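Standup notes, structure subgroup. Blocker cleared on the zinc ion input:
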Amino acid sequence: MAKLNCNDVLQYMDDYIDGEMDSELKKEMDLHLQKCDICHQIMMSHEKTINLLKKAMEIEPDQKMMIRIKNYLNSHLSKH
Ligand SMILES: [Zn+2]
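Run returned:
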């Protein structure tokens, strides 16, 4: 399997956090996150953000919110 790059990790991040992920893919994600500080940081803050949102609203973040978070993360990534 091809190595994941940062964009792939970002793309699969929601599934990863939700635990809805192919185990092979999850392994690749874990590998990347161990090596890549940027994605690790983003994952941490992403997870925290989602958990905060869920707690605050007591519902799943809706699609628009997820897109907004992704845009934020993308602009974060492109600075790298
Ligand atoms: Zn990365």
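Discussed briefly. Residues 37-57 form the longest helix (21 residues).
Next: hand off to the docking folks.
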